[in-house]
Amino acid sequence: MTEYRWLLPAVLHGDPGEGQPGVRRSTRDWAVDMFVFLGAAGTGLLMALALRSDTSTPQPILLADQVVGALACAAVWLRRRWPVGLALALLPVSLLSSVATGPVCVALFTVAVHRPLKFAALTGGLHLLTLAPYLCWRPDPELPFWVEFTVAALLYVLLVIWGMFVRARRQLVLTLRERAERAEVEAELRVERARHLERERIAREMHDVLAHRLSLLSVHAGALEYRPDMEPHDVARTAGVIRAGAHQALQDLREVIGVLRIAPEGTTPDRPQPTLADLTGLVEESRLAGMEVTLDMRVSDPAEAPARLGRNAYRITQEGLTNARKHAADAPVGVTVAGGPGDGLTVEIRNPVTVGQAIPGSGSGLIGLTERAELMGGRLDYGRGPDGRFRLRAWLPWAA
């Protein structure tokens, strides 16, 4: 018995928050409760008026019927807090009082609305069992027993069905409301995720563009630092290159932020993006910065490469040259680009590993390149090869 004691509060009390201490009823709740009370009291008043014509029942019993019925009407105010408890408490009342018919109907309806079907069936069945003794004790002289019993039983059944319908409708409304709130939250999460991905995309693009430009500036600034004996015209030329590089870096930064803010993922940005054919210009730019770079282009027609493939190949090569400039500025660098439709595109960058002063780096560039290659369905690996040279190799799919 002890393991079922926890069920008693849930069975006897209403839904959480329904009439519980500390929970205020709304204006609608007060209006509904007032309407229900007046309906139960009006039904009891009609039954009390009908009792005046009952001459077969002793007056004390009729008076007790009216008093008990009035108390039952007052107890209707407790229906929200104790729906099942009220219905069970009215069981002995329904055996004695016809004035309590209204409160009994209200109690059965409330149980069907606020409690599951098994509790509504239990209380409804118990009240049906009290009909037979009551009708035998105080029968209606104008109606046969079976007709009166059938009408009362149908009334109870209809009240339970009506209450179940109201309960089902309320649950449906709550479910739809929860789904709407869940959909709103999921939409906010999708927007936040889209913003996060856009920030990552902007950061990746800014890193690819600015790291290359800033590494060039570092190389030229280093030449001024370690060659204080340079001719004045060489100093002026190097300073002009630094100024032009800084201006170009700022311009690239403005273009990247402006384009990525308005261009959704998967669309073609308005800003002209680098292609596979632009690798020659990238290599020439590195040569002007003092690097020894050789380009082995084994693609018959680089201009025919898809835009997305060319853009990613360009960014991978750009980052590879930037890393070589940071960590092996004086070493020769070899760039090999090979492949074609159906076979994919392979980009390989090789340079010796040197010991010396290097431009600091965080290592996030290689991580970003790996993500860039994987997003395209390709792969990227890097590290020191058997010959001691550092190698960065990427393979990107190229549809036939």
UniProtKB/TrEMBL annotation:
SUPFAM superfamilies membership: ATPase domain of HSP90 chaperone/DNA topoisomerase II/histidine kinase
Domain Signal transduction histidine kinase subgroup 3 dimerisation and phosphoacceptor: from-to ranges: 198-261
UniProt keywords, alphabetically: ATP-binding, Kinase, Membrane, Nucleotide-binding, Phosphoprotein, Transferase, Transmembrane, Transmembrane helix, Two-component regulatory system
Regions crossing the membrane: 30-49, 61-78, 84-112, 143-165
InterPro entries reported in the protein's UniProt record: HATPase_C_sf, Sensor_HK_TwoCompSys, Sig_transdc_His_kin_sub3_dim/P
Enzyme class (EC, first level): transferase
MF annotations from Gene Ontology: kinase activity
Catalyzed reactions: ATP + protein L-histidine = ADP + protein N-phospho-L-histidine
Presence of keyword Methyltransferase: no
Keyword Glycoprotein included in the entry's annotation: no
Superkingdom per UniProt: Bacteria
Enzyme Commission (EC) number: 2.7.13.3
Pfam families noted in UniProt: HisKA_3
PANTHER family: NITRATE/NITRITE SENSOR PROTEIN NARX-RELATED, NITRATE_NITRITE SENSOR PROTEIN NARQ
Protein name: histidine kinase
Species name: Streptosporangium brasiliense
